[in-house]
Amino acid sequence: MFVLSVIKDTIQSKPHQFDGDYEERLTTSINNRYSNKVIPNVGLAMNLFDFVEIGEAHILPGDGSTYTQVVFRLVVFRPFVGQVLEGVVLTSSKEGVFITLDFFDDIRVPPSRLPHNSRFDQNEQSWYWAYQTSPEGEETRLFMDPGKRVRFRVVKEIFNDVQPGEEDNGRKSYELEASMAESGLGCMLWWLEFDDEGEEEEGEEEA
C-alpha cells in the first residue's frame, strides 16, 4: 500500500528559518511542500522518509534565502493493482460505493464490480447484495451502509491532470477503482456471519 519514491528537488530556506538544525529545516520544508499532495504518476505523498543526498546551500544575488538541491525518499500511498485492502464505506450513489481509508477518500466500486445481484435502494440511498438464502429463491438484503468496514481489491488507478479549482467540481487528481465482486470481499461482517453459520452446521452434524 505504501512505497518509497526517490525525489530530487531544490528546497528554499528563508532567513527567518536559519536558526536550528539544518536537516530539520529541510524536513519541515519538504513535508510542507509534499505531504498530502498527489504527485502525478507517483501517488499520494505522505511524509519524508530519509535523505539520500544533501547538496551545498547557495544564495542567489539579491535574495537572502538559501537554495539546496536535495535527493530524498518520500513515503507514498500507491497500492498496486490486484492488492486487497480494507476500508470503510463513505457514501453510495447510483455510480457505485465510495470507500475511505481515513486519509484517502477517492476509491470507487462501480456497480459492475459489486457482488453479483447487487441493487441500489433509492429510499435508503444504499447498495445491497440480494443474497439467495434458499433454492426457492428467497433473498436476504445485505446492505453496504456508510460506516461499515469492507474488503476490496484495487483493479485500476487513475491519474488526472487537474487544474486549480477543478477538484471542487468533483474531478480528482488521483483515484482508485476497486472491486468487491469476489468471495471474501465486500462487508467484512458478511463473511464472519457465514463462518459462524458454517461452524454451527458442523456442530450439529457432529452431535
Automatic annotation (TrEMBL):
Residue ranges of every copy of the RNA polymerase III subunit Rpc25 domain listed in the record: 84-191
What keyword terms does UniProt attach to this protein? DNA-directed RNA polymerase, Nucleus, Transcription
GO CC annotations, alphabetized: RNA polymerase III complex
A single BP term in Gene Ontology: transcription initiation at RNA polymerase III promoter
Q: Which InterPro entries match?
A: NA-bd_OB-fold, RNA_pol_III_Rbc25, RNA_pol_Rpb7-like_N_sf, Rpb7-like, Rpb7-like_N
- Where found in the cell? Nucleus
> Residue ranges of the RNA polymerase Rpb7-like N-terminal domain?
9-64
Keyword Nucleus (UniProt)? yes
* Primary site of residence: nucleus
Q: What family does the Swiss-Prot or TrEMBL record give for this protein?
A: Belongs to the eukaryotic RPB7/RPC8 RNA polymerase subunit family.
- Name listed for the protein in its UniProt record: RNA_pol_Rbc25 domain-containing protein
